């Protein structure tokens, strides 16, 4: 059933093996059940990816989805999601991107692109105003993301409004933590989606769209958006802190609390934090004017330029908090200019800054312990804070040169290769490294790393009153974590940035108003589909349960919802939470599963829960496979 309000109403199905592109109407019933964005990518992964599919094989589909509010001029309506089975973890994979590319795709007439197969030589997909075609891209292979963007804009007629999403050399070389880069400075970074794209010989997707996103009730939509803009700008967090410091303010917060990931999580306090935090960045002289993703009033993007010193010539859109943490505190590095250079290189090569910095920090601990030496690392010195090694290692990983080839496989196989007890301090869950806040310092909130569907993930759950959760009975705290998981999933479905809607709200009541009252009104005005906040919560829970079912079908159970030994057994050595360990993992798991409607022993969704959420077909599939 075709429709044309809020949604573009069309999708592209691309067979890279055959070299064909087919336009199809987006199914309305599918859209209403899964909303968009992560809802589309997760459900389609369940439908299209069987357990036998290798992540880097032609059989692993690549799915790119907008939300219904992407490109609609709803505040912060910039987001899109890339989904595929992850080559980094082997389980559900997706990455969320911003900037202007997703809105451009919507204005070009498409909500969704599904790629199948593998091209026999490099190609790109040119999308413009309702049409799409595959073109040869061998001349682009080997270029970085800036070179690719500039070459494509020139090749396609010089229109500077063309938006380009592409992979860099890291994706071409199948680095397991490479990402999908939008206009150079925005990455859909996590779970190695860039390697999936590279495995398909797909270099880029330039897009140009000139048609406005159709709205069911344009006047009402504009009025509601105006109300929401005022809320965002008047909120101390979304309108103040986020616009002033971007996400880098979190570094100071986490350091003060004693949970900032430092020297590969050996401690939670970094003595050099005040040299690399948001305040330091503003004072450094590196900051240019803040920028914004499409239709966002908060302007949280940083833009930096280094004019002097060892890293002169660096220009980068960034940094985000997790980038500063990954190349800064995790590596014992307080050289801000080097962090900006590392950020720039990752953007150009198409590397996830979180995983890249995290794995280098792990190698620095391996060096400290004598598990690796210069003989293993092609002569590189991995002493703490050695920013020259950080920069050189980024080059070598992206090109899979020497020891960089081993590192490019990800932290889990690298730790196994090093041996000598390295698995004990390879800080990951299910193969994806943890990014930010130490679970020993905030046990309930950072329990999220253990149960998130992508691996150690800080973006699937964000709770107001996170610090207060520590004081609650464990069953109540776990239920609140489930509640906030459903809240935080809603922006991912709608095509909205979750920072101004959920992470950066002054109070829980402000979040509830934005997400559970105003977002349903925006969705209704855009699409004509009436929905309540409670129904949106159910849709988010449905998607979360689909994701759990994907991983259950791949063999994951409660035994895989673990945290690294360091968090469970090694007390924090200093700071306000000195002596604390994560000692409530198992009771939290039990009560979290109970709140989700999952089997409390296995962590697998029950048939009853699947049927309540309208997922009887998945229940039948899991039953046939003897999983439930």
Describe the protein in words.
The chain is an alpha+beta fold and 628 residues long. It folds into 3 domains: 10-208, Aldehyde ferredoxin oxidoreductase, N-terminal domain (Aldehyde Ferredoxin Oxidoreductase,  A, domain 1, 4-Layer Sandwich); 236-433, Aldehyde Ferredoxin Oxidoreductase Protein, subunit A, domain 2 (Orthogonal Bundle), CATH 1.10.569.10; 445-504 and 532-624, Aldehyde Ferredoxin Oxidoreductase Protein, subunit A, domain 3 (Orthogonal Bundle).
Q: Can you describe this structure in just a few lines?
A:
The chain is α+β, with helices and mostly antiparallel strands and 628 residues long.
Low-confidence stretches: none
CATH homologous superfamily caption of the largest domain:
Aldehyde ferredoxin oxidoreductase, N-terminal domain
Percent range for β-strand residues: 5-15%
* Average pLDDT reading: 96
Give the tally of structural domains.
3
Query: How many H/I helical runs?
Result: 25
Task: Based on Cα principal axes, name the global outline.
Answer: globular
Write the SSE topology.
Blueprint: E1 10-15, E2 20-25, H1 28-34, H2 38-48, E3 62-66, E4 80-83, E5 94-97, H3 101-107, E6 112-116, E7 123-128, E8 131-136, H4 145-155, E9 163-166, H5 169-172, E10 180-182, E11 186-188, H6 193-199, E12 202-208, H7 218-234, H8 236-245, H9 249-257, H10 278-283, E13 303-305, E14 315-317, H11 321-327, H12 336-349, H13 353-368, H14 387-399, H15 403-407, H16 411-418, E15 428-429, E16 432-433, H17 448-451, H18 474-494, H19 498-503, H20 508-527, H21 533-553, H22 565-569, H23 585-596, H24 607-612, H25 616-624
């Amino acid at each position: 059933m075709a429709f044309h309000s809020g949604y573009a109403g069309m999708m592209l199905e691309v067979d890279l093996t055959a070299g064909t592109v087919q336009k199809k109407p987006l199914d309305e019933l599918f859209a209403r059940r899964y909303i968009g964005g992560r809802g589309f990518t997760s459900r389609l992964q369940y439908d299209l990816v069987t357990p036998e599919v290798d992540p880097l094989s032609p059989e692993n589909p690549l799915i790119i989805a907008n939300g219904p509010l992407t490109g609609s001029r709803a505040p912060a309506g910039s987001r899109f999601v890339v989904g595929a089975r992850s080559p980094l973890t082997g389980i559900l994979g997706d990455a969320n991107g911003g900037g202007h590319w997703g809105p451009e795709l919507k204005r070009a007439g498409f909500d969704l692109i599904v790629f199948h197969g593998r091209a026999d030589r490099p190609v790109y997909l040119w999308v413009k105003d309702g049409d799409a075609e595959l073109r040869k891209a061998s001349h682009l292979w080997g270029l970085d993301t800036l070179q690719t963007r500039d070459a494509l804009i020139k090749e396609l007629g010089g229109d500077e409004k063309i938006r380009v999403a592409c992979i860099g050399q890291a994706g071409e070389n199948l680095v397991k933590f490479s990402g999908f880069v939008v206009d150079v400075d925005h990455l859909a970074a996590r779970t190695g989606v860039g390697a999936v794209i590279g495995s398909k010989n797909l270099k880029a997707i330039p897009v140009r769209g000139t048609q406005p996103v159709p709205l069911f009730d344009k006047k009402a939509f504009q009025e509601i958006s105006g109300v929401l803009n005022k809320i965002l700008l008047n909120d101390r967090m979304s309108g103040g802190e986020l616009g002033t410091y971007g996400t880098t303010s979190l570094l100071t917060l986490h350091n003060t609390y004693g949970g900032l990931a430092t020297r590969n999580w050996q401690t939670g306090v970094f003595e050099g934090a005040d040299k690399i935090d948001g305040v330091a960045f503003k004072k450094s002289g590196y900051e240019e004017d803040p920028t914004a993703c499409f239709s966002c009033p908060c302007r949280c993007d940083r833009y930096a330029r280094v004019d002097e010193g060892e890293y002169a010539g660096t220009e980068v859109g960034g940094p985000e908090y997790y980038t500063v943490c990954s190349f800064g505190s995790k590596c014992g590095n307080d050289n801000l200019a080097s962090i900006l250079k590392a950020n720039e290189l990752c953007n150009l090569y198409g590397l996830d800054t979180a995983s890249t910095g995290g794995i280098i920090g792990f190698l620095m601990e391996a060096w400290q312990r004598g598990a690796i030496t210069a003989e293993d690392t092609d002569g590189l010195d991995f002493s703490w804070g050695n920013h020259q090694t950080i920069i050189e290692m980024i080059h070598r990983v992206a090109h899979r040169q020497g020891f960089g080839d081993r590192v490019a496989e990800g932290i889990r196989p690298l730790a196994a290769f090093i041996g000598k007890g390295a698995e004990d301090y390879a800080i990951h869950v299910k193969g994806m490294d943890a990014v930010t806040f130490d679970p020993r310092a905030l046990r309930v909130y950072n329990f999220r790393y253990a149960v998130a569907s992508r691996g150690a993930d800080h973006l699937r759950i964000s709770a107001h009153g996170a610090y207060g959760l520590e004081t609650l009975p464990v069953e109540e705290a776990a239920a609140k974590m489930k509640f906030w998981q459903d809240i935080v999933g809603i922006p991912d479905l709608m095509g909205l940035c979750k920072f101004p809607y959920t992470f950066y709200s002054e109070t829980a009541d402000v979040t509830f108003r934005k997400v559970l009252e105003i977002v349903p009104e925006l969705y209704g005005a855009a699409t004509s589909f009436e929905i309540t906040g409670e129904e949106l919560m159910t849709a988010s829970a449905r998607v979360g349960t689909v994701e759990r079912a994907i991983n259950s079908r791949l063999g994951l159970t409660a035994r895989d919802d673990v945290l690294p030994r360091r968090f469970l057994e090694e007390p924090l050595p200093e700071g306000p939470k000195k002596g604390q360990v994560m000692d409530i993992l198992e009771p939290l798991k039990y009560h979290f599963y109970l709140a989700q409607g999952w089997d409390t022993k296995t962590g697998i969704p029950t048939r009853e829960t699947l049927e309540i959420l309208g997922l009887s077909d998945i229940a039948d599939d899991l039953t046939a496979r003897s999983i439930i």
